Amino acid sequence: MFRDRKEAATLLAERLNSYHKQHPLVLAIPRGAVPMAKIIAEKLEGDLDIVLVRKLGAPDNPEFAIGSVDETGWTYLPEYAHQIVKDPRYIEIEKNNQLEIMRERRSRYTPVRPPLDPKGRIVIVIDDGLATGATMIAALHALRAKQPQKLICAIPVAPPETLSKVASYADEIVCLESPESFYSVGQFYRSFPQVSDEEVIELLKTAECNHF
Q1: What is the pLDDT of residue 177?
Q2: Does the structure show a pLDDT above 50 at 212?
């Protein structure tokens, strides 16, 4: 169990130390991973930015991911999605809802600049943990299309079957813990508070001051 996101980020940075001073692009999946990615970017002397993806929530349980969508509208739907959702109109409506949230977040998080370009760079994608892996898969898929030199998925915790699903989308996976018994990401942190939009905006602003 990790004390908090700060401890998890510090441990991840140690595991990623081979990329120190190689100017990696460290991308957080908002919101929980942004404070972690800032720590990692600082320790590796890289750049911080976000990659916007959203999970598609199940009809009766929005916290359970039946898939995910990136900013372009590309959608990841695992096989079980069609067993849970019988009406394809639900998926289209949910996708459009999540795209609208991403558009709003993009306008708030990085209002005066476009996303940093991953082309030709070492790209490290951070989340505070994976359950189904759906959002990470969407993030890695979106970034692969932008031709990074190397694409790394770095997380503190994920179940083994999720790591197997994600593996084909990344060049390297760094995961600190992979327990068989897994119910939610939050169970592996003593302190796991929500990260607010305001915190994300402030973290990105201070990163821009350091790198631009």
Answers
A1: 97
A2: no
Of all residues in the chain, what percent are helix, strand and coil, respectively (each to 5)? 40, 20, 35
SS3 30: coil
CA geometry: angle 22, 27, 29, nearest 5 deg = 160
Q: How far apart are CA 165 and CA 168, in angstroms?
A: 7
| Total of domains in the chain | 2
Residues 165 and 125 in one domain: yes
Together in a domain, 59 and 31: no
* pLDDT score for 53: 97
Same domain, yes or no, for 83 and 123? Answer: no
Examine the domain organization and report whether 204 and 127 are in the same domain: yes
Number of H helices and E strands in the chain, helices first, is: 7, 8
pTM value is 0.94
